[in-house]
């Protein structure tokens, strides 16, 4: 039994899609969330900059007495996690491995599609982990740099010509390869799951890393005997690096519910 | 006569559209350019964060022996310049005033359109300066958060459905007001000048702050007697805060020529 909080971070607010799933699945767990909104997005930056920012994010979270770290950011999970995960004494979960395990479980034709930020795709982290588990899998991937700004500007609805065009352009080469599974390798993408699903067709399984990661974390806590007491009332705290003004409205988009919990601004300069 | 360099900065690489005009107009002037590519974009961030970043950018530039500062960033010019310009002993030029002076000169019906980032539009900096000069002007403005990511992803050509849709949606309310002048209040927008011009119609004057700023700086140097010696060979140095990998290809998009000059990475942490 361990009632210490879980530390979760993302480059911005997209990681709240994973927090939403964590809250659903683990209602007794305290959560401390850090969104680096003062430097978002990470997805187009270089590997060295992403590693530097990730270390600062973790240094902030570990300034609290947390029991586990969740990297709720596709870009950091693919680009920096291998470099940094052994530097900390805490269990760390990223969004890549849970999604990979689900994808290799559900694919039948071993043709797997993958979309993500430029940094995520270039890292080839998904490819490596899939091929370790399924050496004859074929992976078809595409970097989709416009999907994050489109989602952040609310262009998420069926029939919106901009999101429909972007999805069609990015996904046509993947669809043409006859994949039966598509990994949505960025926390923003589940918000356009129906637009992507319409385009890919109902026979293609969409894998949302946020949901898979929440299940993975539940198991990780169980296995390490560090779950919180059942029935306790959990608290959620949110930290951002830009102003907290407007946080609640933006955050509720990703959290799919009103933000309940304290929101504070933090300066990572000294971390 | 003063051969010291001019310091120019922007949140990223868009400010190179102003550098291009500076190089054309002032071929004898040394230029030191800082693009804060590790934290770009500034346009959606809060005023306090933008001011903090701008002070760090200027602290870096003034660590060189420069003779003037050019804020080649619409967001910083509108949001932070009033707060910080008196803190330095150097002449400072932003992109707002030169564009405003041109706009009030060319408008005939005193109906002026303005587009920019969320931070720029919310600052109302253009509005204030226009109304000081032309109290009966009417200003119709729109924040266009998707134009920067679209331009940065190369969606700049006539016939591209995404840029055409975004331009039409953002500009329809402004066009319907019958403006005869439109200020392109962000350094990225001149790259889609033809798409914007097609939509607005040939009778609407488009004002590019980069071009106006270069002319303004030429005058500023002249007036202060700090122009560089005629005929000397100028050097241009470029600094970025993210990796320099890929800088040249991205930079040449905005510079409209190959980058000639040294490119270095800098850490603003200590500024």
Give the tags:
six-stranded parallel sheet; Rossmann fold; homodimer; 2 domains; four-stranded parallel sheet; 12 helices; 271 residues; alpha/beta
Question: How would you characterize this protein structure?
Answer:
The structure is a homodimer of 271-residue chains. Chain A folds into two domains: 6-94 and 211-270, Rossmann fold (3-Layer(aba) Sandwich), CATH 3.40.50; 96-209, Rossmann fold. Chain A is of the alpha/beta class. The mean pLDDT of chain A is 95. Chain A is globular. The first copy, chain A, has helices at residues 16-25, 47-61, 74-79, 81-84, 96-106, 118-123, 125-133, 147-152, 161-175, 193-200, 209-223, 247-255; strands at 6-10, 31-35, 68-71, 92-93, 111-116, 138-143, 181-184, 205-207, 236-240, 262-265. In chain A, 42% of the residues lie in helices and 16% in strands. Chain A has twelve helices and ten strands. Chain A has a six-stranded parallel sheet, with helices on both faces. Chain A has a four-stranded parallel sheet with strand order 6-5-7-8, with helices on both faces. In chain A, strand 7, helix 10 (193-200) and strand 8 form a beta-alpha-beta unit. Chain A binds chain B through residues 37-39, 45-49, 145-146, 149-150, 152-153, 155, 161-162, 165-166, 241-243, 245, 269, and chain B through 37-39, 45-49, 145-146, 149-150, 152-153, 155, 161-162, 165-166, 241-243, 245, 269.
């Amino acid at each position: 039994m361990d009632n210490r909080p879980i530390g979760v971070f993302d480059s911005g607010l997209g990681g709240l899609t994973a927090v939403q799933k964590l809250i659903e699945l683990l209602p007794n767990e305290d959560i401390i969330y850090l969104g680096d909104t003062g430097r978002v997005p990470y997805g187009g930056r270089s590997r060295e900059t992403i590693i530097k920012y990730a270390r600062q994010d973790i240094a902030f979270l570990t300034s609290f007495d947390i029991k586990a770290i969740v990297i709720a950011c596709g870009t950091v999970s693919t680009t920096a996690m291998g470099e940094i995960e052994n530097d900390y004494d805490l269990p760390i979960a990223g969004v890549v491995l849970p999604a990979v395990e689900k994808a290799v479980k559900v694919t039948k034709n071993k043709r797997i599609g993958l979309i993500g930020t430029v940094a995520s795709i270039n890292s080839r982290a998904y490819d490596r982990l899939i091929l370790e588990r399924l050496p004859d899998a074929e992976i078809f991937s595409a970097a989709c740099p416009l999907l994050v700004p489109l989602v952040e500007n609310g262009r998420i609805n069926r029939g919106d010509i901009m999101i429909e065009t972007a999805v069609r352009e990015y996904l046509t080469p993947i669809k043409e390869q006859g994949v039966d599974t598509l990994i949505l390798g960025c926390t923003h993408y589940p918000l356009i799951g129906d637009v992507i699903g319409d385009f890919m067709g109902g026979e293609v399984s969409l894998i949302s890393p946020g949901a898979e990661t929440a299940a993975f974390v539940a198991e990780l806590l169980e296995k390490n005997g560090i779950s919180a007491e059942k029935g306790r009332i959990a608290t959620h705290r949110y930290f951002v690096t830009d102003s907290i003004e407007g946080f609640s409205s933006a955050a509720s988009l990703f959290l799919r519910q009103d933000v309940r919990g304290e929101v504070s601004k933090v300066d990572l300069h000294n971390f």
